[in-house]
Design goal:
single chain; alpha+beta; five-stranded antiparallel beta sheet; 2 helices; 5 strands; globular
């Protein structure tokens, strides 16, 4: 799995509910897992390689950072819910997280 440094990711996410986290997906398995890497405070800012699921990203309130907000691309490369509104601050996102925005 190492060697993603020179590849273009399928998708890149950051999270409202987990500040300073970043996920990059490079492959998708038949088991609906993304293969890629994550960087977070838990990895001391270094990339950790492995797999993560769409459900994990949804739970964290992840949003695509490699596309513009008005893009027609979906939040996940295989479809899934689309970012339908822009939240101005992390506090606002936290307040709205109980209304079903991230609980799909």
């Amino acid at each position: 799995m190492m060697g993603y440094d020179n590849e273009e990711p399928l998708a890149v996410w950051e999270a409202f509910l987990l500040p300073n986290w970043r996920w990059e997906a490079y492959e998708k398995t038949e088991e609906n897992l993304y293969l890629g890497r994550v960087r977070s405070p838990n990895t001391y800012g270094r990339w950790e390689y492995g797999s993560f699921s769409r459900e994990q990203l949804e739970t964290a309130g992840a949003y695509r950072v490699d596309i513009s907000v008005d893009s027609d691309k979906k939040l996940f490369p295989d479809g899934g819910y689309k970012l339908t509104r822009v939240v101005e601050t992390e506090f606002e996102a936290f307040q709205e997280s109980g209304d079903g925005l991230f609980g799909r």
